[in-house]
Amino acid sequence: MIEKDSPIPIYYQLQEQLRKQIEDGTLQPGDPLPSERDLSETYGISRMTIRQAMTNLVNEGLLTRSKGRGTFVAEEKIEQPLMKLTGFSEDMKQRGIKPGSTLISFDTVAAPANVAKHLELDAGTPVYEISRLRTGDGAPMAFETSYLRQDGITIREQDLEGSLYEAIEAQSGRKIDKARQTIEPSFASDEEARMLTIEAGSPVLLLERTTRFHNGTVFEFVKSVYRGDRYKFIADMQR
């Protein structure tokens, strides 16, 4: 019940009631929530108040909105450690999740200036450009665009069906050793939202990584956009 005479804001009361139902399992991941209209009639409060409570829970990652379908309880987030270098497929397999990949484009392009800088090449140098939609158990997880140097590496389309890192190590005879990665919050563009089946402007995690072989040679620059409602990154720290 909503206590309309309480000093606690009505939107906050509803927000916490929904949170409790999610935490105690009354509402399960993937369950649809009633419409704003239905909730408004059930609780006798305005749809604007309903919308504020649900938006707060969406921003926290407990709910997710799907355009044209409604609002749902978010799936449990996948944890990825920040201290270990793994490819997407390797990471999914370690968590008992079946990795999947849909190839969007695969071509040789002239490296734009910012890409060439990351790959330590001259602008305009031919590089591989690979765009893929990465999935876990069939659900969209990330939209990824990779740029790879071509000197000493030959990428075939069949190499993109599984772990690209494993294919590169096997084909080049070189060990992938380390990477530098940045993570920042962002909002999904129209294309990213379409690929990830989320609303444009939804919170996402933007990752950029430069990866090197054991001898220090950089071979890859990758930009990945992860669904903010399905992923979280963790780091163990010690003082």
From TrEMBL:
Keyword Transcription regulation attributed: yes
Matches recorded under PROSITE patterns: HTH_GNTR
Coiled-coil annotated spans: none
Every HTH gntR-type domain range: 8-76
Pfam families the UniProt entry points to: GntR, UTRA
InterPro entries, per the entry: Bact_HTH_transcr_reg, Chorismate_lyase_/UTRA_dom_sf, Tscrpt_reg_HTH_GntR, UTRA, WH-like_DNA-bd_sf, WH_DNA-bd_sf
Entry's Gene Ontology molecular function annotations: DNA binding; DNA-binding transcription factor activity
Biological process per Gene Ontology, one example term: negative regulation of DNA-templated transcription
SUPFAM superfamilies found in the cross-reference section: Chorismate lyase-like (SSF64288), Winged helix' DNA-binding domain (SSF46785)
Keywords: DNA-binding, Transcription, Transcription regulation
PANTHER family, A to Z: MANNOSYL-D-GLYCERATE TRANSPORT/METABOLISM SYSTEM REPRESSOR MNGR-RELATED, MANNOSYL-D-GLYCERATE TRANSPORT_METABOLISM SYSTEM REPRESSOR MNGR-RELATED
Protein name as annotated: Transcriptional regulator, GntR family
Source organism of this protein record: Bacillus selenitireducens (strain ATCC 700615 / DSM 15326 / MLS10)
